[in-house]
Write a structure and sequence with these properties.
The protein is 55% helix and 14% strand. It is of the alpha+beta class and 286 residues long.
Length: 286
């Protein structure tokens, strides 16, 4: 049996009785007050990160109040030892729920849905839930993986170039070598030294467009990506569709009617709008 913590004044009288092997508690309690605890939710994120947007959308959809801790990827704050203690792979986002850490965006999304009240973001229908999980997997292993390669020459290389101008080439490579994940470190070093070749980029564009066609077909059969219910799968793929458009592939999205209608419907959701309204704090001026 577990007793709650109480702050109290006056006196406490408890009488323990046994009856038919059942423990009974009776007594007189004066001035009892249940001790209140405040649970905090802190999101470590970067304003323009696709995976950070997934986490922000999920928090917003569930109506969770959360504190923002912006991680500046432009100065590689995500590879600082203090942050690697939070997220061992040195990427964003990470969630701190009253001292309990969750990382990896899909895990964060499911944790938020499991932990907090509000509308469920997972379908009750088992077939739809299975397809939700299929799209969660695709969002990470196909969309995210290939979008990262497409974005490199346009965004990451620019960010690294700005860092190199300020701190020098040696300092840049030193920072890249501080990436804690061995596979990511090897990839980042190769990208920093050689960039991404056009053949790889074209392959990645084709791989994502293949998934967009599958989305368009699914959305022609039902209202949301996994079925009749808005779910985590819709949240999981949206940032990559948006990033695809931003990287110059807007026509590939516009040519798919069902996908375009879904895209517009997604951005009409207040939770999505608020997640995308978060801007780079470094751009704020007084």
């Amino acid at each position: 049996m577990e007793f709650m913590n109480f702050k109290y004044s006056g006196f406490l009288l408890l009488e323990l009785l046994t009856q038919n092997n059942i423990l009974l508690i009776s007594g007189l309690v004066l001035g009892l007050k249940k001790e209140e605890t405040t649970m905090t939710v802190t999101l470590y994120h970067y304003w323009g990160s696709t995976c950070s947007r997934k986490a922000r959308m999920t928090l917003n959809e569930k109506g969770v109040e959360w504190e923002s801790r912006h991680i500046d990827l432009h100065v590689f704050e995500n590879w600082e030892p203090w942050y690697v203690d939070i997220h061992p792979n040195g990427v964003v986002p990470a969630l701190d729920h009253d001292g309990r850490i969750v990382y990896e965006s899909n895990a964060i999304m499911e944790y938020i849905d499991d932990t907090f009240g509000g509308p469920s973001l997972r379908p009750s229908d088992t077939w739809e839930r299975a397809h939700m999980r299929i799209w969660l997997d695709k969002s990470e292993h196909i969309l995210h993986k290939n979008m990262h390669l497409i974005s490199h020459n346009r965004a990451h290389a620019h960010r690294w170039g700005e860092y190199e101008k300020i701190y020098g080439r040696d300092k840049l490579l030193e920072r890249v070598h501080s990436q804690p994940d061995i596979q990511r470190r090897r990839d980042e070093i190769h990208h920093a030294e050689h960039g991404i070749d056009e053949e790889t980029i074209e392959f990645s564009i084709g791989r994502i467009d293949e998934q967009l066609n599958l989305m368009d077909r699914a959305l022609g059969e039902h209202q949301w990506l996994s079925g009749t219910t808005f779910s985590l799968s819709d949240i999981a793929v949206l940032p990559f569709v948006e990033r695809f458009k931003v990287n110059g592939m807007d026509d590939a999205v516009a040519s798919k009617k069902n996908l375009t209608n879904w895209y517009e419907k997604m951005f009409a959701r207040p939770a999505v709008e608020r997640a995308y309204a978060f801007t780079n704090p470094a751009d704020d001026t007084c």
